[in-house]
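Same chain as my last thread, 142 residues:
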Amino acid sequence: MNHDHYPDIYLADILRSTRTIALVGASANPQRPSHRVMGFLLRKGFTVHPVNPGLAGTQLQGRTVYARLADIPEPIDMIDVFRAADALPALVDEALALDPLPKVIWGQLSVRNDTAATKAEARGIKVVMDRCPAIEYPRLVG
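reply #2:
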């Protein structure tokens, strides 16, 4: 996949087929982008599982926060990453240990690591980087 440009149909298909999202880097601060995007995704009907080890066991926007991906009690369609780009390789390794594998790893704005993307794609996981589903969803899905 060319991560410099994504066809609209690629992004739209991901957003239409996704139901369950692990939001890594979730924040309790309403001013943080991860908090706002989580609220947007919940309002659009997605099941969102916030992931943040420092907040594990608490509630964010009515959802239980998990320490790590493996703690989420159901299969995940998409992992939405609100972490620095250098955290993406370890996060991909964590995702590759899940059974079943997630269908998509989505790196938020400025979250891009081509090596990590190649590793995920080699296992059949779609990857989107440096994009925000809260921007793409209204543009492509409505």
